[in-house]
Specification:
Number of helices: 19
Radius of gyration: 22 Å
Structural class: mainly alpha
Helix content: 55-70%
Distance between the termini: 31 Å
Largest sheet: 2 strands, antiparallel
Strand content: under 5%
Order of helices and strands: HHHHHHHHHHHHHHEEHHHHH
Oligomer: single chain
Strand order of the largest sheet: 1-2
Length: 435
């Protein structure tokens, strides 16, 4: 199993927002069926798992071999002439890559899969491009951020960039490419300062079109543009967490005033993304300089208070509730450095989200992996390294039956968070002259 490159990220740099609730563990058979069952077509492929096993238990090795056979079929069908078949294959791979750890299987086939995804990105329609970009991000996460993932990123980055810059491409495809660029750069090329700077600049070129003009007026958004701007801004803010202090200072001076103006955007989701990004940037600024102050902070707080108490009846009730909740959090942090800690449980472990940076990083993985993020937190060495969890646990029945008291868990996690925060600041100081 691969380990991520040392020195790539500060220990425990995750971002977590809301836990995934109501998930239940599935057996190997059920999970495989759920992942791949809908990849089927009367003449194009066989069902991913045969039904009617009579409830007989299939041994783990056999189940693994059956799953791999079906995944091989999915990969083969990525080159099928039928767009429907290719889309079904991409969806099956997306579910499999999200829900399982397939490092050994994919290491042997990474170039084949990358070639197929590149073909879908270049020649497919908007829906196929969007799906291929997401599967590629999942592939990089599966490969663990090592040389294999970096090789794939360098191979597909030009086509992802071309789609993101193409104003005639579908909005869904451009959004997916923005997220993929952010995630793939984060996990596979973070040590390369040039790659990081290029990716930051590319994403900036997308969301900065939402900034006010010289007269201070926000542009009228085109259909779909707020969603694209949100995806680019979120991917950008993920990469900002990797920047050294010298680079961060420049970014804070350039973007904070402009982002403040974007709080007046007519799109509620973009406003929320902007608010969360402002909180993250202020947090990073305070990491660099304890007495960091936002320019015209009083005006910013007044704007945040207005959004946190917005009762505009012209807006949907759910939108108003979501906006008020997020902006109350942002306001409390800006005024009092108060962050509401959250806890994500998986297996017998938990991850605490105690900062805007950890929230952004966790949310980025959750956006790509969806509910499968918990499985990867439990078993994927890359995510466990990022979140400071150590090697995957190997538990037998006796260990699983032994419960640690809640108070002991809290003491352990509190100590671990303080240690990781100190380490993160040391790493940032060491990176100060990288760019």
């Amino acid at each position: 199993m691969p380990r991520s490159k040392k020195g790539k990220r500060g220990s425990g740099k995750p971002g977590i927002k809301n836990g995934v609730k109501g998930e239940s563990a599935a057996s190997d058979d059920e999970l495989t069926s759920d992942i791949l069952s809908h990849y089927s077509s009367a003449s194009e492929t066989t069902s991913v798992l045969d039904e009617g096993t009579g409830g007989e238990q299939v041994d783990e090795q056999t189940a693994q071999e059956e799953t791999e056979d079906k995944l091989k079929q999915c990969i083969d069908n990525l080159t099928d002439k039928s767009a429907k078949t290719r889309l079904a294959a991409l969806e099956s791979l997306r579910q499999a890559f999200s829900s399982r750890l397939l490092y050994d299987f994919l290491t042997e086939r990474r170039l084949t899969v990358s070639d197929c995804l590149e073909r879908s990105l270049k020649k497919g329609g908007g829906e196929e491009q969007a799906a291929a970009a997401t599967v590629f991000a999942l592939l990089c996460i599966q490969l663990g951020g090592g040389d294999e993932a970096e090789e794939g990123f360098k191979m597909l980055r030009p086509v992802l960039t071309a789609i993101l810059n193409d104003g005639t491409a579908s909005t869904a495809a451009r959004q997916s490419c923005a997220r993929a660029l952010g995630m793939c750069c984060y996990v596979s090329a973070a040590e390369d300062g040039e790659d990081l700077i290029k990716s930051l600049a590319l994403l900036e070129s997308v969301f900065m079109s939402s900034y006010p003009n010289r007269e201070g007026t926000l542009p009228t958004p085109k259909p779909g543009s707020p969603g694209l701007h949100s995806a680019a801004l979120q991917a950008w803010s993920l990469l900002v967490t990797l920047c050294p202090a010298s680079r961060l200072t420049v970014l804070l001076d350039l973007h904070l005033p402009k982002l403040k103006a974007c709080l007046e955007s007519s799109d509620v989701n973009y406003r929320i993304t902007v608010g969360e990004t402002i909180a993250l940037l202020v947090e990073l600024g305070r990491d660099i300089e304890r007495e960091f102050e936002v320019e015209d902070g009083e005006s910013l707080c007044e704007c945040l208070k207005s959004l946190a108490t917005d009762g505009n009846k012209h807006r949907a009730k759910n939108d108003r509730r979501k906006q008020r909740s997020i902006f109350r959090e942002v306001l409390h942090y800006i005024e009092n450095e108060d962050f509401t800690e959250e806890k994500i449980r998986f297996g017998v472990e938990s991850v605490y989200i105690d900062s805007w940076m950890r929230r952004r990083i966790y949310d980025a993985f959750k956006e790509i992996q969806e509910s499968g993020v918990r499985h990867h937190l439990q078993f994927n060495p890359l995510l466990r390294d990022i979140f400071g969890l150590g090697p995957p646990l190997i538990l037998d029945a006796a260990v699983k039956a032994t419960k640690i008291s809640r108070f002991e868990k809290h003491l352990f996690n509190s100590a671990a968070f303080k240690a990781r925060t100190k380490q993160r600041n040391k790493v940032r100081d060491k990176r100060a002259d990288v760019m």
